[in-house]
Amino acid sequence: MVDQATLNELVAIVGKENVFTSKISLNTYMYDASLVYGRPEVIAYVKNRQEIASILKLASIKKIPVTPRGGGTCLSGGAVPQRGGIVMVMTKMNRILEVDPENRVAVVEPGVTNMELQKAVAPYGLVYMPDPASQKVSTMGGNLGENSGGMRGIKYGLTKDHIIGMELVLSSGEIVQIGGKLEPIAQELNLNAIIIGSEGNLGVATKIICKLTPAPKANRTMLASYNTLEDAGTTVSAIIAHGIIPCTLELMDNKIINAVEDWLHIGLPTRAGAILLIEVDGWDAGLDRQAQQIMAICRENGATDVKLAQNARERDNLWTARRMAIGAIGRLAPNYDMEDATVPRTKLPLILKEVDRLSKEYNVPIGMLAHAGDGNLHPLVLFDERNKEEMARVEKVRAALFRYALDLGGTLSGEHGIGLAKLDFVPWAFNQQELQFLRRERLAFDPSDTLNAGKTVPETAA
Fold this sequence. Notes:
Number of strands: 18
Distance between the termini: 23 Å
Strand content: 15-25%
Helix content: 25-40%
Shape: globular
Structural class: alpha+beta
Number of helices: 16
Largest sheet: 7 strands, antiparallel
Strand order of the largest sheet: 15-12-14-13-17-18-16
């Protein structure tokens, strides 16, 4: 419980102007982009590592839960203060500390958005490759915590493949350095692999060292239309089987296509059952051949039409359509639940068919987005949370989706994390010994069990 003495200590650490306890402030920070809610007791904005260290040390001593928070775009309840306590807001730590083009690294604070980093390194001919659709507002601290991916993940990997070091504050208030700018020659345990994707359970990153990549010299972008989702899903495996690795391979179904087209009016094929957005990049030489191969594979697997973007404007329109798809869904229902169950790409047609079946069985509309090249599904279940009977059906759809994904050899999450929203499903994915190991790992970093408490791993695993 946060008592008056604790409030006074928080004010002493971050200043009165950065501590909020009003009803409207607490209500503002009781949710993220998921369906989960939890009311904090106090909001504290932090500006540097020492303030974070002092808050975590205080909370550890007093056993007060701390929820680190960036842009609040988390889709699994990871930024929701499930046990009250302190919400520690990182958005004022928003400086790009260094861009080192010679070593192809950048050092940023956790409140920097993904898009701000992209813009900062672009003049040097460099790219930070992870590109979540929420990149305009999602912060690098959150990207690190969730191991975010994005549309380029099939070729370039996820956040874990592009962060080579960090400054980390432990729950005790201790500040440690993990990895560094010369990560490839650092002789140490690869603790980056443990921290990235840990959802703020193991520590709070205050500096993030990002690996940058030279911007591709050229690209070719294609739009393939299909009558069915299954045909589109089959095409994905066929492309990869031919030894071609596109930088993006995205799927949208008819509901998403029409929602986007009704909003943006950019000429998407509204009668298509599904489309694939495909791009190859690299040196200009050879890209036309790759594009022609891909277009032929699409036609062989049922594509009714395949088009190649003829100029930058047409390409930008296609990727704008994909990035704006989630916002467009707001035109179809008051609420949506976007999941990210992930399956082997060869199983993509099966799970796409199953999602369609679940939609009909439970009479719940579902729009389908997917980072198809990774088998990473983003089904958008549409509903009105004021309708309790409908909400019960939505929960049944969620459970059935995760069960089926796991049965196909998949996972509960490709990039959105477990948080609170999927906590009940974690025992389906791990046996008791594995859960106990994960719980011990967490407590090794956070013995007081205060840092983003109650999330990711069920406490019954102890």
